[in-house]
Specification:
The protein is 80% helix and 0% strand. By secondary structure, it is mainly alpha-helical. The longest helix has 34 residues. Helix 1 packs antiparallel against helix 5 and helix 3 runs antiparallel to helix 4.
């Protein structure tokens, strides 16, 4: 395996470059998935039947807390990648761990929000609006849950194997995934919650 020392560690081999390129293609497919969910939501958002509307169920406080947690986690993972490029493994692991804790906090609020919606009569079967809302939020939440396990696996690998071209590549790809989840959430926050509250 030829290592190009003029490149950052995560780009230092031909295989690493292919892995990153492949992951961008995967993210393209993920964008299509969420674009489909958003399109479905916008088509059905006024079909509330006898159920509540977005304006009746959305609350700004928990949504703001979720947004702050996720935006902060995205910033922290950036610090983790910066530490990785400086070769500071302890700092990198710490930033990755903080990212996962913030993600866990986000997930806790989202689960609480789901339970609250079902409790007030806005479940999956209430209306087309609530079904598309909960499906969109649930898909994002499932991606965050997967990210938590993936991030934990990377931390364990770095602790076991140290910083190699392979572990750096995996860490960088994970950071791309985490930033992607953040971008999707900004769309959810802006076009589902804020728009729905107006």
């Amino acid at each position: 395996m030829k290592i190009d020392h003029s490149q950052p560690l995560e780009y230092s081999t031909g295989q690493n470059n292919l892995n990153i390129f492949g992951f961008w293609i995967f993210l393209g497919a993920e964008i299509m998935l969420f674009a489909t969910l958003f399109t479905t939501y916008f088509t059905l958002e006024h079909r509330t039947g006898n159920g509540p509307t977005g304006a009746e169920i959305f609350e700004i406080t928990p949504v703001l807390i979720e947004t702050i947690l996720l935006l902060t986690s995205s910033f922290v993972i950036g610090l983790g990648i910066h530490a990785m490029r400086l070769g500071k493994i302890k700092a990198m692991i710490s930033f990755f761990a903080i990212t996962l804790l913030l993600g866990l906090g986000f997930l806790g609020f989202e689960i609480f929000e789901f339970v609250h919606y079902v409790h007030i009569g806005a479940g999956l079967q209430t209306s087309a609006f609530t079904a598309s809302l909960l499906t969109t939020l649930g898909t994002h939440g499932a991606h965050v849950t997967f990210g938590l396990f993936w991030g934990l696996a990377i931390i364990l690998q770095i602790k076991k194997r140290g910083l190699t071209p392979e572990t750096a590549n995996k860490s960088f790809i994970f950071s791309l995934y985490w930033h992607f989840l953040d971008v999707v959430w900004i769309f959810i926050f802006s076009f589902i919650y804020l728009k729905g509250m107006m």
